[in-house]
Amino acid sequence: MHGQSAYRAWTDIALQDIFSFLALVIYMGFAKVPSLTDYWRRGKLYSLPFPKSVMTGKKFFSIIRALHLSSPEEDAKNEGKRGTEEFDRLGKIKPLYTEIRDACRQNYQPGQHIAIDERMVASKARVSFKQYLKSKPVRWGYKLFVLADSKSGYTWDFFVYEGKSSQASKNGLSYDSVMTLLDTSLLGTGYKLYVDNFYTSPILFRDLLKKKVSACGTIRTNRQGYPRTTENTLDSRAPRGSIRWIREDPLLFVQWKDTRDVFICSTMHTAHGEETVERRVKDDTGCWTMKDVPVPPAIKDYNRHMGGVDLSDALIGYYEVLHKTKKWYKTFFYHFVDIAVVNAFILYKGQCTLKAKIPMHQKAFRETLVLELAEAGAISTEREEESRKETHHRLVHIVASGDKTQGRLKCRKCHAKTAVKCSTCDVPLCFQPQRDCYNDWHKEQGQ
Prior knowledge:
Elements: H1 15-30, H2 49-54, H3 57-66, H4 72-79, H5 94-106, E1 113-122, E2 131-132, E3 140-149, E4 155-160, H6 173-181, H7 184-187, E5 192-195, H8 202-210, E6 214-218, E7 243-248, E8 251-257, E9 261-266, E10 276-282, E11 288-294, H9 297-305, H10 308-318, H11 328-354, H12 362-376, H13 378-390, E12 395-397, E13 409-410, E14 417-418, E15 420-422, E16 427-428, H14 437-444
Parallel strand pairs: 1-5, 5-6
Antiparallel strand pairs: 1-3, 2-3, 3-4, 6-9, 7-8, 8-9, 10-11, 12-15, 13-14, 15-16
Helix pairs in contact: 1-12, 5-11
């Protein structure tokens, strides 16, 4: 890589540098340009003053390349265990992964209605636990199991799916996922959980009820424990709104006729209620008319409260900070930043509600956060500016490797062969009357 030698002189970064770095990462989520280097380009088309005022492009890319979420020593130890059961597939993200999960749980108590669903984090990196889900908007990436507040979309807990495990219980992945996320020693009891047909099973709902957690979800009719009787099923020609149900205490199984048959299981509802939904139906003359049809309370509540994870995904997706990267652990770093920002935004809205204030939009919240992070990192930026002013740049001849003869390398700016370079930046640059890449390049770098 041409620019590798330019970043050879590494200086340790301070906490203020991290504030500046995060300010730019979040800023890039709502101020999009085709390439990261465009944020520091000069000229009429790409003259963005904010990134330059926060951090130089050279330092930003140095931090990105050096970014690791775990210590090299621990990574080396873990790599030595590859191929054994002790190998940790998530070792490269484990420290931040653990901290972000703890922070999500400690700073919020969900409302009574919660939901569990999958989330996909887009990636094309080649790692063993990358998944394909054809039903999701993001089909290729890392699969996360997420517990979210149904009303606000707050991500209360999540874990990364690492692939098939020999330690899975006899009840399967869906059962284990719910039991892992729904830790009543941390969350408490009395909750109402909503899940889709991937998770719903009679044994899961019975075990949740023992933990004093009610549950409701669509169910597959081939699930173990689903009633096998055909005596109480709907006829295929039954009109919309028709209902059949079977109760096996404490479970209620409901079949409801909509555009297609909907099957649902619940431990918190009655079979019939007074609520209706508006649907298009054919009358006796063959004409389509709008009609109110009865809807079971379980389906009404499921539609109302199941979307907690989808709401969280939507809030993240509006201003996602995810950057293209070949390093899988950096993808998780960007996603963890998104989770932290969205959860902070939800907490902020909650405080505004308590104080009877009108909350700002998420974009305005992110803009304010970026400015405050940039201000927190301003001390480091000022020192960097002073240091850069004191740095003396000078031209020297390029010496060929292994001897003292003059060599030639590609100019960083125009890619033509040149015999000189900047001694401080260690970057080959042309310096000719017709082509002064040396001064042009330093102006672009703000030096």
